[in-house]
Amino acid sequence: MYGPERLREIVRRARHDGRVEVAILADEFGITTETVRRDLTRLERQGMLRRVHGGALPVERFGYELDLEERMALHQDEKERIGAAAAELLPLEGSVIVDAGTTTARLVDALPSNRELVVTTNSLPLAREMISRPNVTVLMPGGRVRPLTLAQVDVWTQRTLAELHVDVAFIAANGMSAEHGLTTPDIAEAEVKRAMIHAGARVVLLADSSKVGQRHFVRFGEMDQVDVLVTDDGLDEHAAAEFRDIGVELICV
Hints:
The chain has helices spanning 3-17, 22-29, 33-45, 68-72, 76-87, 102-109, 124-130, 155-162, 187-199, 237-245, and strands at residues 20-21, 49-52, 55-58, 93-98, 116-121, 136-139, 144-146, 151-153, 166-172, 175-177, 181-184, 200-206, 218-221, 228-231, 249-252. With 253 residues, the chain is an alpha/beta fold. It has a seven-stranded parallel β-sheet with strand order 6-5-4-9-12-14-15, with helices on both faces. Strands 1-3-2 form a three-stranded antiparallel β-sheet. 41% of the residues are buried.
């Protein structure tokens, strides 16, 4: 098993079992305990795990939410591929919603210049990025700005979104599964995401495969409300089958 594969498996086990132990990982992977400790330290620096004596716990156990800069550093290659693939789903002209998030940011990076689009976003960084794009009209719903994510939330945001009907809503999530649906750590952001789903004639979820099986504090939607999931090729086959069974179209890149 290559190093990146081992790191992914450690995170998967931590989320599934609630913890991982150094000695057990060393024995099962056939590596030294020093190598395991280095892996756990690396994953902690990436915000995926928290080190404890003898092992590590998934950050979800602590109710810990990464800030924007920390999340930008995670899964960069996968997010770029997802963003580029999602850009192919944009209408030639029309209206879309782009949710705040580091994966949706890669969609914004890939926006083609030959589309006439009205884009509503609750993300200050994404609005700033799009404002100079030709043929793109940028709208923001207003509302309180969360410092951690720089996303507009609360009643003003929800009221504006409730009045919209767009061709495609591009949504982000912190966790997803067929059983527990779409989840995120913050109540205010969950309400905004829920409003975005209702506003979209078509709902496209942008989420890398590490989000599968993650279950955060607030559920804002069900997987069967998603028309298309754009994710990376690391998606577990069992999860993929579950998503297809409930009618979700998968694009794995």
